[in-house]
Design brief:
It contains 5 helices and no strands. The protein is mainly alpha-helical and about 90 residues long. Helix 2 runs parallel beside helix 4 (about 50-60).
Length: about 90
């Protein structure tokens, strides 16, 4: 008789900066990082797939380096607008 075994459970997800910046990361994981990992929030700002709602939430929650990351993002956006309108 062959014994049927269920596959082992997935290991717990350990969020990383690479995961936070990867545009292929599932949006639900990005939101989990935003809510539960303050030290990784600044990396979410660098993710091109981060939605405006996610960025707004991150700006409200704050965390180490978040303000500076948002400043860089906004400065970069201003630079792109002025060079594209020239």
């Amino acid at each position: 008789m062959t014994e049927m075994r269920a596959p082992p459970p997935e290991p717990p997800l350990v969020p990383t900066a690479l995961m936070a910046t990867d545009p292929a990361t599932d949006p639900s994981i990005l939101w989990t990082i935003a809510r539960e990992e303050p030290q990784l929030r600044r990396w979410l700002v660098a993710n091109p797939a981060a939605s405006p709602a996610l960025l707004e939430t991150i700006s409200q929650l704050g965390g180490p380096g978040v303000r500076r990351a948002l400043e860089v993002l906004l400065d970069e956006g201003k630079g792109n607008q002025s060079s594209s309108s020239s």
